Amino acid sequence: MNTTSMKHLPKIALAALAAAVMAGCSSSVPLDDKKGGAPVESRTPGTGAGGASAGAAQSAVTPVDLTKTDTAAQGNLPRVVYFDFDSYVVKDEFRPTVESNAKVLAADRKKKVTIEGHTDDRGGREYNLALGQKRAEAVQRSLALLGAGADQMEAVSFGKERPAVQGSDEAAWAKNRRAELVYR
Fold first, then answer.
1. Which of 16, 54, 69, 135 has CB atoms 3.0–4.6 Å from 107's, for a disulfide?
2. CATH of domain 79-183
3. Mind giving me the DSSP string for 94-142?
């Protein structure tokens, strides 16, 4: 080896060491979309995973009037979004819950909310913490798209640590797969 090659040897060794450390730190929790960890809800019969047919994608976005807020109704505001098993897709049936909370947050920029992600008791602790975080962040993104400020929201995960209902049947599991909006 010549002296020029010897100069670069420490840099090459450092790069190899960094790559080895990064590979060792990778998570074994498969929640990214590349591995199919998150099922996508099909919205129309006979369409693909994203709800779009093979032809062209379609969008049915309904505008939300954020100027209409009913302060009397804020006391009984729905604050729970439920999810399907192993999913963090916010379903259409919970759109009114997300919209009404977004209206409250957009109308009063001083209000703050913590979005708590929860899972049922199936699966490992690490996986459930990651899934609970994905659920909380999905609701947070939905609220932000509807006018809530990023500084008003915080997404946290409790995984399977705080069940709403005790039990090991589908009824109990369905109540535990949720994201709760807690105003502070």
1. 69
2. 3.30.1330.60
3. GHHHHHHHHHHHHH-TT--EEEEEE--S-S-HHHHHHHHHHHHHHHHHH
